[in-house]
Amino acid sequence: MIVTESLSKRFPRVTALDRLSVDVGPGVTGLVGANGAGKSTLIKILLGLSPATEGRAEVLGLDVATEGAAIRERVGYMPEHDCLPPDVSATEFVVHMARMSGLPATAARERTADTLRHVGLYEERYRPIGGYSTGMKQRVKLAQALVHDPQLVFLDEPTNGLDPVGRDEMLGLIRRIHTDFGISVLVTSHLLGELERTCDHVVVVDGGKLLRSSSTRDFTQTTTTLAIEVTDTDEHPDGTRAVREALHARGVTVQDGSGLPGAGHILLLTAQGEDTYDLVRDVIADLGLGLVRMEQRRHQIAEVFTNDDAQRKEAVGHGG
Ligand SMILES: Nc1ncnc2c1ncn2[C@@H]1O[C@H](COP(=O)(O)OP(=O)(O)OP(=O)(O)O)[C@@H](O)[C@H]1O
């Protein structure tokens, strides 16, 4: 769907994209990065609206440098900032956008009605947009991105300004754009957790550079951290503590999970292969405790940033 090769965008004072090479397939893809990471800049280049300083990119097999108009015919775009006229209704605005995309008048009206129904704005469609809530305005922006039945949509921070319920509804809508209509989605957010739930694939950018691109499943794959939970006995009324001390005596560093909500009885340690499992099993058996669970913890996408920060700090430490 999208391929970039060493794509860079330099402004006089800042490098917004720095040799970014990424390959995005069909489905729902999240583009994650802090504010200023280069997400909006990438979208504008992919739409052929802003030239790259170097490198190249293709969207749906079309070159962004020379085929921008053809790309915009096939791709819908929901911009980040509020750009809606306050004194027209959602219907008038979306019909107008459909006509701008080349749909004949009747088809534009029909598609507008269908799209506004899909985004949940059917009842309010004749009211002026100026009186809409933030959530309703985001839905109008989403509707105009979908009205010409694109193959792919770019959604720039669609959950911005929404409360938690509004966010959930918007994320559900985004998921259904793909499942109900087969339209692929590139959605940006600076909130990692929400993309973890919504996307098939996640691309993480930081300072214009690619940090990681992989399936959501790989992001949340198992880690080498083992979580252990044991029962207490009369002999060891605090079983967790007994295991921690016994492992410590055998040279294994163990953290407790008290920093994690509801995980005060969980011990966390780094597995060094099969031996660690055997050692933990033996220690628990020797103490006569019951093993409630021993499992590998799963990654959270947020850890990509934490790990990267840690690696950067380590690199700086080693350098200096
Ligand atoms: N037209 C411009 N002129 C100069 N600098 C720009 C321009 N557009 C973006 N930048 C800078 O490029 C960097 C990346 O901006 P961009 O808007 O792409 O980030 P973003 O990841 O979309 O963040 P946000 O969600 O805050 O928009 C920022 O440092 C920004 O200030």
From TrEMBL:
UniProt keyword Nucleotide-binding, yes or no = yes
Is-annotated flag, keyword Transport? yes
Q: Which UniProt keywords apply?
A: ATP-binding, Nucleotide-binding, Transport
Q: Cross-referenced SMART domains, in alphabetical order?
A: AAA (SM00382)
Domain annotation ABC transporter: ranges: 2-232
- CDD domains recorded: ABC_DR_subfamily_A (cd03230)
PROSITE patterns noted in UniProt: ABC_TRANSPORTER_2 (PS50893)
Family statement drawn from the similarity comment of this UniProt entry: Belongs to the ABC transporter superfamily.
Which protein are we looking at? ABC transporter ATP-binding protein
Origin organism is Streptomyces erythrogriseus
